[in-house]
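tl;dr need the bound structure. longer version: we got a ligand (flavin-adenine dinucleotide) that a collaborator sent over and nobodys looked at where it sits. i said id run it. heres the input, straight from their email, havent touched it
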Amino acid sequence: MDLNLSDELQAFRQTARDFAHRTIAPLVDEAEAAERTPLELFKAAGAAGFLGIRYPESVGGQGAGVLAETILREEMARVCSGLAAAISVSSHLGTYPIHEFGDDEQQQRYLVPALKGEVVSAFGLTEPGAGSDVRSITTRAVRDGDDWVITGRKTYITNATIADFMIVVAYTDPTAGLDGMAMFVVDLPDSKIEVTRLGKMGHLSSEIGEVAFDGVRVPARACLGGERGAWAKVMKTLGIGRVVVSGGAIGTAQEAIDLAVDYAKERPAFGKPIGTNQGISFPLARAEAHTEAARLAVYKAAWLYDQASEPVKEVSVAKYLAAEAAIGATDVAIRVFGGAGYVRGSKVERLYRDARYFPIVEGTSEIHQRVIASRLGL
Ligand SMILES: Cc1cc2nc3c(=O)[nH]c(=O)nc-3n(C[C@H](O)[C@H](O)[C@H](O)COP(=O)(O)OP(=O)(O)OC[C@H]3O[C@@H](n4cnc5c(N)ncnc54)[C@H](O)[C@@H]3O)c2cc1C
């Protein structure tokens, strides 16, 4: 399915697809096997302009919108959702706050090289004791003369093991509640910051880690956008991130459906292709319907951002539908492939593992249902 997108966006989709096939695809097998994100990926994405889709040309961006970035993530995820996530985190979560809330010096020092792919960024919000319940983070930043001293522990942080800098969300004044949070840009690696790799079930080519700060001293200029009031900034950053990650979910779902449809047309059983049985074709039809509905919701949320709106319910609807479409479609694909889908090395096996990422990150499916319910007055 393709919406009646503008000629410009359709051309962009083709360029993104070509990039995914020519540049990302050759890296996938080795990156997944080694569970490493190749740094040349960022350089290639930067050179092709794909790290700065939404940023203005003045900082090296393309000046396009959230819908374009969502389409890019969709096309990259069809090839490899793990590598797509690594790129997306560096080009959005770890850089958007610098563009939106950073001063000129911070933009030149961090944003500009990140958009070229010369350096990699990460975004540290989640902690061992606080994931969905973000307000319960305990990382503290205490002012000491001209410096800030950061103590705390962030976990499941994408790109933590390869990042050159990381945005860290911390309380500067816990007595002020949500108003007492700030963001800091912290250089990595640092001998006082302990980064521990974490293994996981999917997205193997996207590295994640736990990051421990034990009285880490950073200069005053590391504070991003003020000593307080970061909560709204974090939420704004996550809002767009949720739409972009939903693009990855629908790309994952569509790839699984397309592979399974092709297989169902070819694979014979009892003298005819398995796809001639409604037991195979109807689940695929349902997965296609759910994915198409999810894509519409995702594009709508992206479009709203591009119209300068700040959607909330639409973002949660999109993220929830897209994540669940990815889970449903990859489950159907494994069933259609039978044993051929369960063995290591089959693409649907990777898609199935990768899909489990989507209902967890950037707000779990339960949290998005909570947001939708609250918008219904419940
Ligand atoms: C691969 C991967 C990459 C990640 N990358 C990053 C990153 O780069 N930066 C970062 O900061 N974080 C990152 N995360 C963390 C991610 O955002 C969190 O895992 C997510 O927010 C959920 O938090 P949690 O894991 O602590 O689960 P919890 O919040 O403990 O939730 C556990 C379960 O309880 C449910 N639950 C919680 N509260 C409610 C409620 N009120 N009602 C109903 N159900 C509820 C949840 O939906 C979930 O099913 C990453 C995670 C993964 C897996």
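gonna send this back to them w/ a short note. The mean pLDDT is 97.
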